[in-house]
Amino acid sequence: MPELPEVEALAAYLRERAVGLQVKRIDVAAISVLKTFDPPISAVSGLELTGTQRRGKFLDLHIGDELHLIIHLARAGWLHYRDNLAPAPLKPGKGPIALRIHLSDGSGFDLTEAGTQKKLAAYLVRDPMQVPGVARLGPDALSLDAAGLAEIFKSRNAQIKGVLRDQQVLAGVGNAYSDEILHVAKMSPFARADKLTGEQLEQLHSAMQSVLTDAVKRAVGQKAATLKSEKRAGLRVHGRAGEKCPVCGDVVREVSFADSSLQYCATCQTGGKPLADRRLSRLLR
């Protein structure tokens, strides 16, 4: 799933290539992707793309003076920019393309979604706060100082991993970067947020800032087509179960859940003690 660094990079990429161009039209191939009906999608035709920004993990395209196309790429969605876009209208329900934006210079971009879970979402609104997910966002992960993070965590009786991923608590961090942050902070993903000491909270804040800032630096300037591989190349533990930890050389371990998993280094994060994989434990009974 695209997280804060990748969405920041996509906003920068479109800012460089598309802002200032007119939106000729938007084709919707998957009706399920468009979550709003007023204003209609045809309202963007002939209006200028005036800006782009990131809101948590949402991409906000400013169109004309008052419209916003808010995009959430979800787990399997992506943006593909094309210098020469075929002018023919999309055929509904054909292929992975869910939505196509045609620009006045003949370029444009597709929003695609792989897999069977159709969660890619686009909202055309006059106010970004009309999008429920945007309205519920907590403070941006890169906007918080150490005191602000401590205030949030001290009131959360939950595991750190879950708190970092909760967009209503902290916007922008997902499954991958929460694993990376906890690895750098040398903390167990199962540790309780409200039990962290002041020193641990400062350590967590420092890790969050360094991991996300470094990832943004790597991502911004990349083409949309190379962002996924750039993200994977920069990850140290997430998605690397069975490989060696780059810090200590221990094997990277995994805990599986119903629809996701986390990766961690026992030596670096849990005092050498492997965490219980509850799904595997059930199978072994």
Layout: helices, strands, pairs:
Elements: H1 4-17, E1 22-28, E2 47-55, E3 58-63, E4 67-72, E5 77-82, E6 97-103, E7 108-113, E8 121-125, H2 132-135, H3 146-154, H4 160-165, H5 175-185, H6 198-219, H7 227-234, E9 252-256, E10 261-265, H8 266-269, H9 278-284
Helix pairs in contact: 1-6, 3-6, 5-6
Pfam families: Fapy_DNA_glyco, H2TH, zf-FPG_IleRS
Protein name: Formamidopyrimidine-DNA glycosylase
GO molecular function: 8-oxo-7,8-dihydroguanine DNA N-glycosylase activity; damaged DNA binding; DNA-(apurinic or apyrimidinic site) endonuclease activity; lyase activity; zinc ion binding
Can you offer a commentary on this structure?
With 285 residues, the chain is α+β, with helices and mostly antiparallel strands. The protein folds into 2 domains: 4-135, MutM-like, N-terminal (N-terminal domain of MutM-like DNA repair proteins, Alpha-Beta Barrel), CATH 3.20.190; 146-284, Helicase, Ruva Protein, domain 3 (Orthogonal Bundle), CATH 1.10.8. The protein contains 9 helices and 10 strands. The chain has helices spanning 4-17, 132-135, 146-154, 160-165, 175-185, 198-219, 227-234, 266-269, 278-284, and strands at residues 22-28, 47-55, 58-63, 67-72, 77-82, 97-103, 108-113, 121-125, 252-256, 261-265. The protein has an 8-stranded antiparallel β-sheet. The two termini are 33 Å apart. The model is unreliable at 280-285 (pLDDT under 50).
